[in-house]
Amino acid sequence: MLRSLFHQQLDEVANHIQELGSATLAQLDLAIASFANQDAASVAAIIDNDKNINKNELDLNERVFDIIARQQPVASDLRKLIVVMKIAGDLERVADLAVDLAKVSKRLVPYQGEARQELSLLATDARNMVAKALIAYKNQDVMAAQQLAKLDDEIDERFGLFIKHLFRQDVGEPDVEMITQLAFIARYVERIADYATNLSEWIIYEANGQHFDLN
């Protein structure tokens, strides 16, 4: 009876991860749209939503602490609970990056360069990495988690090329600030992809108890 309750609690916190993940993806979608469509009005909503994500992460951690205290799990069950907290923390940081991206996008509303479309595509691909990591976690799919490392390498390469091209442009003084802000956004996007890779590392750790650095 107690064991059945414990596994029910494990399933519940895993489901909460999916809910937190969905909220984080929604934040990324809003942030990318605010940049791609030059929509400064959505920034306030993104910042407000972040408060809920922060609270949900804290609530989830408290739930895990309570389960550990009451059930005293060992071995693989303890790993599952540790991974829940680690993934929740990484998702919260991704949501923070969505806020940062949106804030910088607000300053870029006047910018009309081609880099906006290229950066939007890069951001969408990083966002999709997070989505794939969440699916791999739900399905306990270690192979799918491992494949995210290759996608991260591709994002890193595109990020590097984007930055090189950005700073090689012959720009006037008024455009220097715009280029700097675009570089900030590119860095935020690259970090989002890194966190997606972190998620895959936790999936692998939950499965076999070994931590691999996929970044």
TrEMBL record:
> Residue limits of the PhoU domain?
17-103, 121-203
Does the keyword field hold Nucleus?
A: no
Which Pfam families did the record assign? PhoU (PF01895)
Q: Which Gene3D superfamilies match?
A: Phosphate transport system protein phou homolog 2, domain 2 (1.20.58.220)
- Alphabetical UniProt keywords: Cytoplasm, Phosphate transport, Transport
Fetch the SUPFAM superfamilies from UniProt.
PhoU-like (SSF109755)
Q: Where in the cell is it found?
A: Cytoplasm
As for family, the record states:
Belongs to the PhoU family.
Q: What does this protein do?
A: Plays a role in the regulation of phosphate uptake.
Q: Which NCBIfam families match?
A: phoU_full
Q: Describe the subunit structure.
A: Homodimer.
Q: What is this protein called?
A: Phosphate-specific transport system accessory protein PhoU
